[in-house]
Structures are given as C-alpha cells and as structure tokens.
C-alpha cells in the first residue's frame, strides 16, 4: 500500500472518530478519553504516511498539541469549556499544521455560535431549568471535519 492510500484511510478514520465525538457529546455531553486517545495515537501514523520529517515537523506537531491543551485547559479552569473538548482539541492539533489551526479555531468559533444558539433555543422551548449545556464538541468536530475534507478534496483535485 502506498503512503498516500494510508494517509487517505487515516483521514477517513479521523472523520469517523470526529463524528463519534460529536454524537456522544450531543447524547451525553461527554467525549470519552478513549476516543480522544484514539485520535491522538493515529496522528503519528498520519505523519509517517505523509512523509513529514521527525525534526522539526513531528516535534512541532507535538508542541502544537501541548500548546493547544495548555490554552484550552486554562479555559477549562475558568469553567468556560469541558475537559473532553480540551482533550479533543489537543488531539486534533496533532493532525494539522499550525496554519490550519487558525482556520480550525475560526470555524470552531462560528459553528460554536450556531450550536450555542440552537442549544439555548431548544433549552428554552422545552422549558428546562438551569443553564443549557452546550455540546461544543459538535463545533470542534465539524470544524476539524472541514480541514479533513480540504485534505481529501485537494488530494483528488
């Protein structure tokens, strides 16, 4: 099998895991550690299939994952984000170059606004008590799937 075929298979696996993350977040407001770990552990296989060098590129990817975790862990500490969301973002950061992470964050913010609006409207229409819990993993997953889609589409273009 060629590295390109393996790369495409791994991107499809990432997309499937992102769908699973979104669905579980909608259903239970939890993104499992196993799901996040699977996403993180597949990233080095993707690096190898993509032919990126260990130094500095693979090291940079690890740094991006750690950096993303640090930034969003601070938001978690402030009560602004769930722990599963933080781990999902860190795992996703292992897959994409730093330039794409800016687009990921922008898309995540826009989609997250829409998800929040829908969640609040649903919460009020169903007359539930308390604050609505926003399944932000949906926004994270959809934004990451956009990046996956770009890589798959440009591969065949």
Could you walk me through the main structural features you see in this protein, from its secondary elements to its overall organization?
The chain is an all-alpha fold and 157 residues long. The protein has one domain. The protein has 6 helices and no strands. The longest helix has 28 residues. It is globular.
How would you concisely characterize the structure shown here?
The chain is an all-alpha fold and 157 residues long. 82% of the residues lie in helices and 0% in strands.
Write the layout of secondary structure elements.
Elements: H1 3-28, H2 33-50, H3 54-77, H4 83-93, H5 98-125, H6 136-156
Helix pairs in contact: 1-2, 1-6, 2-4, 3-4, 4-6, 5-6
**Share of helix, binned:** over 70%
Structural class by secondary-structure content: mainly alpha
What amount of the residues lies in strands? under 5%
User: Quick one: how many beta strands?
Assistant: 0
The H-and-E topology, N to C, reads as HHHHHH
Termini separation: 21 Å
What general form does the structure show? globular
Give the helix tally: 6
List keywords for this structure.
mainly alpha, 0% strand
């Amino acid at each position: 099998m060629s590295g390109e075929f393996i790369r495409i298979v791994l991107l499809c696996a990432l997309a499937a895991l992102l769908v699973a993350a979104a669905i579980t977040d909608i259903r239970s407001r939890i993104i499992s550690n196993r799901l996040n770990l699977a996403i993180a552990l597949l990233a080095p296989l993707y690096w190898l299939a993509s032919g990126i060098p260990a130094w500095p590129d693979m090291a940079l990817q690890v740094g991006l994952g750690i950096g993303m975790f640090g930034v969003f862990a601070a938001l978690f500490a402030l009560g602004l984000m769930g722990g599963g969301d933080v781990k999902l973002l860190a795992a996703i950061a292992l897959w994409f170059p730093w330039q794409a992470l800016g687009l990921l964050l922008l898309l995540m913010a826009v989609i997250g606004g829409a998800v929040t609006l829908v969640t609040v409207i649903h919460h009020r229409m169903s007359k539930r008590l308390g604050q609505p819990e926003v399944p932000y993993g949906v926004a994270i997953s959809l934004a990451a799937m956009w990046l996956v889609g770009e890589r798959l589409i440009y591969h065949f273009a």
